[in-house]
Amino acid sequence: MKSHSIPNRLFTALISMLCFISDGYGSPNDSIPQKIIHLIGADFKPGYIFPTHNFLKGVNLAHKPIHTTLSGYLKYGFQFSPTTRLGQEYPHTIQGIGVGYNTFLNSKEVGNPISVYAFQSSRIAQFSPNLSLDYEWNFGASFGWKKADKDTNPYNRVVGSKINAYIHLNFLLNWKISANTYLRGGIGATHFSNGNTNYPNSGINVLIGNFGFIHFFGKEENLKLSKPYLKHPPFKRHISYDLIVYGAKKKSGKIPNKNNPLVIPGAFAVAGLNFNPLYNFNRYFRAGLSLDAQYDESGNIWEHLANESLPSNPEDLRFYHPQFKEQFSIGLSLRAEFVMPIFSINWGIGRKFIYKSHDAVFYQIFVLKTNLTKHLFLHTGYQLFRFKDPNNLMLGIGWHFNGR
User: CB neighbours (10 Å) of residue 201?
Assistant: First the structure.
């Protein structure tokens, strides 16, 4: 055995084990083992930055609008072989990890952040044997931002953290140019923000163009050698139940005037619980209701200001502690979930019905679930008000009951 093949076999075994446990598809009765088709890819993504803040419109040290971004991405991914159950159920789905470099042509005030992310891509429509319409989402973190600072970066009132979330959705034309290589081009949208963990948190929103390729290793040979997987029973519609506990921290502030946001020093704790019954329509989609309970330490805090008037210095802010009932709420949300290998994406629109807070009553939720076993999953979520105002992150774990 060649020595360089050992790391590759170990890495393949690790990925295979993750896939094996991700949704309970591997079992002692499976006569054909899981197999993985590896791939690499690269993308170039020029973009237009929406001018959502005066800083981006030209009120900055350079006295120039910040409306252009350029980025390059490299990624590794894998696809389930057609010899596997997941390969038959999700024949066009790939997932993996990537890294990207971003420049906003103003490194002194914005920085040149590096993004590290997980991604998943699959097919929407097939136009011809060699041309399809695909989607791809990216979810991760970006590092190396120049954050706002009243002394060293006074004009930047957009980026409040050195580390920010990176969220991207792309729609791509996928053109097969050889047995294992595809060219891809399309448009998408990118959002950078810190999830209200620091101020300011205006975020940066970008309209993206995408030009790139992916190359599979041995895909054509794998297809030729593939054998039918053992027949699995037809899908039976059923109700499953997800129980999630999560926590996070957040900042709280006011903007008494446009140029002087007043942010309370320190951070506030957030903790919550979701109970989410979902009707499974098929292998790819489920929907239902969620009972959402949340404690927010910053809830109603501004209604208990101890100062006679708002001070100019945040360090002088003083508050009385609100009662628990003013910081606790229970809501009900409609949920829809798109189910894919390893990952599931859950959206929700809800309304509080038990609350004492003066915060918005209606809320929206976006969640990425990452399966660790058939039942246990990581929960990475984001709660919004009015579809645009960030409230808090939702970082936790969940347990999936009655999964089939």
Answer: 21
